[in-house]
Design brief:
Blueprint (H helix, E strand, L loop, with lengths): L1 H21 L4 H7 L6 H6 L3 E2 L7 E4 L2 E4 L13 E2 L9 E2 L17 E2 H16 L5 E4 L4 H14 L2 H4 L16 E5 L15 H9 L5 E5 L4 H4 L4 E7 L2 H10 L3 H7 L1 E2 L2
Parallel strand pairs: 1-11, 3-4
Antiparallel strand pairs: 2-3, 5-6, 7-8, 8-10, 9-10
């Protein structure tokens, strides 16, 4: 009798355990409260969060939006935002790279210190891959930009010149963060033919690894308001350059998508 009672009790206990195992967990509730994973496309287009100090601080002067924090390494200089006419970067140095004009120590051979160091690494990286780059034009003063625009307008018209030449104060070259680059294979010229050279292809693919972006890309002329310039590279730092490259953005797009950190 005792054996039968024990067997019955064991059966009931086992049945209870089985029922407990079969009882479904509250998976529905977990699914409803867990955010769905982002798709690769959503991850790619997610806007960056950056310090508010990296956004332009502006003051309107004679109808022009003038940048008040020009030493910001992510300063956005274009046909909407201008650098002060008297601005000269305080930390200009001459990168130790090859120049199309040789060893001349002239204005356009200079860049800001951080950008210059990155340019040196990029040229070394290119050489390691068998590509030999030459710096053509870096820093450019406000007055020099005036001369270049005047010459361009005289050669054609001011309207035509402004498609590829920035108005004074609105040139990235004045920031000390941009460099025009060419190659011996392209006759050291700054033209769209540079796109087809091995050096031009290397830059397009690898510049972001060193913190540079192709500033005026093909097909984005309506955004940048300049013609395609496969020779013009702008230093923005590796983090921003990677985001811009991966999303196929212009620098304007980057700030359109960016949100200031709280």
């Amino acid at each position: 009798m005792k054996k039968t009672a024990l067997t019955l009790a064991a059966a009931i206990l086992l049945a209870g355990c089985a029922a407990a195992e079969e009882k479904p967990e509250n998976k529905t509730e977990q699914t409803e409260t867990t955010a769905p994973a982002k798709t690769p496309a959503e991850e790619k287009t997610a806007g960056p969060v950056i310090s508010a100090s990296y956004f332009n601080q502006l003051k309107e002067v004679d109808g022009v939006q003038v940048i008040q924090n020009p030493e910001n390494p992510l300063v956005l200089v274009n046909k909407e935002f201008a650098l002060p006419s008297d601005y000269t970067p305080p930390d200009l140095v001459r990168p130790k790279v090859k120049y199309s004009f040789g060893d001349q120590d002239i204005e356009k051979s200079y860049m800001r210190k951080e950008a210059a160091a990155a340019l040196e690494k990029m040229f070394q990286g290119a050489e390691g891959d068998g590509q030999y780059l030459f710096a053509v034009s870096g820093y450019r003063s406000y007055s020099r930009q005036q001369e270049i625009l005047a010459a361009g307008a005289a050669a054609s018209s001011e309207e035509e010149a402004l498609k590829s030449i920035a108005p004074p104060g609105m040139s990235e070259h004045q920031s000390g963060l941009a460099m025009d680059i060419s190659s011996e294979s392209n006759g050291f010229e700054l033209n769209q033919a540079f796109e087809a050279t091995e050096e031009g292809k290397w830059l397009k693919e690898h510049a972001h690894e060193y913190g540079f972006i192709l500033r005026y890309p093909k097909g984005k002329e309506d955004i940048t308001r300049y013609i395609y310039e496969p020779w013009h590279f702008r230093y923005v730092g590796q983090e921003a350059a990677a985001v811009i490259y991966e999303n196929d953005w212009t620098f304007e797009d980057y700030f359109e998508q960016a949100k200031p950190a709280e």
